[in-house]
Amino acid sequence: MSYLSYAFVLFTALVVGIYYRIPKSGQWRLLLAASLVFYCSFGPLYLLCPLASALVTWGGARLLACRGGG
């Protein structure tokens, strides 16, 4: 899905529309799911980048919470 395609414009409009209609507690989940769908549109191998980033961020936050750094 190219940034210059109608599919991207439709996808973005759909995500933004849903984003403002769901509770704040679920907005981050929607953005994560939309990000994964977008990356997957280039091929399944491209899912590794956002998944690895999310996993490292989550692990770092858990580590900080355990050590009292946050």
Strand tally is 0
Q: What is the CA-based Rg, rounded?
A: 15 Å
Write down the overall mean pLDDT.
91
Which runs of at least 5 residues are low in confidence (pLDDT < 50)? none
Helical residues, percent: over 70%
Question: What is the element string, with H for helices and E for strands?
Answer: HHH
Number of domains: 1
Distance between the termini: 38 Å
Largest sheet: none
Shape: flat
Q: Count of helices?
A: 3
Strand percent estimate: under 5%
Structural class: mainly alpha
Q: What does this entry look like structurally?
A:
The protein is mainly alpha-helical and 70 residues long. Helix content is 73%, strand content 0%. The chain contains 3 helices and no strands. The protein has helices spanning 6-19, 24-40, 48-67. The radius of gyration is 15 Å and the shape is flat.
Short description:
This protein has helices at residues 6-19, 24-40, 48-67.
Secondary structure layout plus pairing:
Elements: H1 6-19, H2 24-40, H3 48-67
Features:
flat; 73% helix; mainly alpha; single chain; 70 residues
